[in-house]
Amino acid sequence: MSSYVKLTKDQAAPLEDIKAGELNQPIRVPQLRRKICLECGQQLPEAHVPPSDEPWMTGICGCAEDPESCKTGLFCPCVLYGQNMETIHGIPWQESCLCHATFLCVGAGLAISLAICNGTVSPDAFELMTEGLICGWNVFSMYTSTGRDNLQKKFHLKNSPCDSCLVHAFMHPCAICQEHREMKRLIIDDTVNEDTVIDPPSVQEMSISIVAIEPGNSST
Predict the structure, then answer these.
(1) What would the mean pLDDT of 192-220 be, rounded to a whole number?
(2) Dihedral angle at the C-alpha atoms of 127, 132, 137, 143, nearest 10 degrees?
(3) What is the per-residue pLDDT across 141-192, written as a single tens digit (0 to 9) for each?
(4) Largest CB tally within 10 Å, which of 56, 64, 68, 214?
(5) What percentage of the chain carries pLDDT values higher than 70?
């Protein structure tokens, strides 16, 4: 607790100066205040200083630094997005990949319908379809930016070049490639290398010698 109840007033003050409701009021005690981690809720030491936001190791347009992830993010972004979600959240990549692909297929289908129906449908219907496409892309951007938000919170990364939702809205392929490169550099793979040979400790045995003592020959 960060407060205690004050039951009495200073003795130097006359009783007529005490107003109704003045006693038994909680007051703040700085010594009793505790720092709490906003992520896990655990108590932090008094000397704890929150880390400052760090810059990303690679820029949003640095796709050439990792050509493999660049090709995957350009031609099959749903797979790269699923791999990112599996790394940061631990969920199977197939689930995130399927959700991502569903969003893209629905959006692509609506965009193709708009192009085909341009001039053949009423202006009101065309406007309604356009608003639906824009609204769907906004929902898609908010959905895909959750992984970037969690990555920034975990490693205290800055909003670069702008808010994560806007980055995914206007530069989605570049965003997932940047997140993939960042996770490859920051998240440590704790699997054991196949070339590492671990020898078990040698078995130690204890020998027990039994000495037979004949009756009558025991020493005192």
Answers:
(1) 56
(2) 160
(3) 898 898 899 888 888 888 888 888 999 989 999 999 999 999 888 875 444 4
(4) 56
(5) 64
**Residue 176: its pLDDT value, please?**
92
- Give the contacts of 62 (CB within 8 A, at least 6 positions apart): 178, 181
pTM score, whole prediction: 0.61
Read off φ and ψ for residue 203, nearest 5 degrees.
-75, 125
Q: Is 66's pLDDT higher than 50?
A: yes
- Tell me how far apart the alpha carbons of residues 99 and 86 are, in angstroms, rounded to a whole number: 13
Q: Hey, how many other C-beta atoms are within 10 angstroms of the C-beta on 199? A: 5
DSSP the chain: --EEEE----TTS-GGGPPTT-SSEEEE-GGG--EE-TTT-PEEPTT--PPPPBPPSS-TT-GGGSHHHHHHHHH-HHHHHHHHHHHHH---HHHHHHHHHHHHHHHHHHHHHHHHHTTTS-HHHHHHHHHHHHHHHHHHHHHHHHHHHHHHHHHTB---SS-HHHHHHH-HHHHHHHHHHHHHHHS---SPPTT---PPPPPP----------TT----
End-to-end CA distance of the chain: 71
Give the distance between the most distant pair of CA atoms in the chain.
122
Q: What pLDDT score was predicted for residue 175?
A: 92
Residues 6+ apart with CB under 8 A from 86: 92, 93, 96
